[in-house]
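Hi all, long-time lurker, first post. I run a small reading group and we've been trying to get comfortable going from sequence to structure in the token notation. Rather than ask abstract questions, I figured I'd post a concrete chain and ask someone more experienced to write out its structure so we can walk through it together at our next meeting. Sequence below, copied exactly:
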Amino acid sequence: MTKRRAARRSTPIYLRVRSLVDPDTGELVRAFVAAHATDKRVCRERKFREGDELRAELKKPRNPKFHRLVMGALQLVLDNQEGLHTIDQLLTIVKIKLGRVESTIDPSSGKVFYIPESISFDALDDGQFQEFWRDLCRLIVRDYLPSLRPDQIEEMALMMGDAA
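-- Answer (accepted) --
Happy to help. Here is the structure in token form:
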């Protein structure tokens, strides 16, 4: 499979549910339409036409607010420690500490490498993300801000998100 073909298959298209009148029957039906300009462009590039039958796995995406909450909590840790300079550095360390990694052995050396798992919208559904969030709050209290409780981390992250 070519790189271009693989990239095209992995790019999700976000859809919005709309109520439309079926032109054949006149009845009100639910339809999926491209949610954003980017999604419309991808549909054009893939040459999707009205009447095409498509196969899809539908997932309701996470609320972006929760992703911002994680970033706010990580920023809170960054602001209260020395040594790490970016959220990406801290997020990588946190994923490793939480065991959210895939181990891979380099066949040439036999060394084991750990690749952090993604917390992207497409990688985790809402339930999995909530589990990550709970684990993250406990880890922050245990390793970085022991004078706080997990619920206080969430409150502070919420306040940081409101200020952004």
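A couple of things your group might point at:
The two ends are 42 Å apart (CA to CA).
The longest strand covers residues 15-21.
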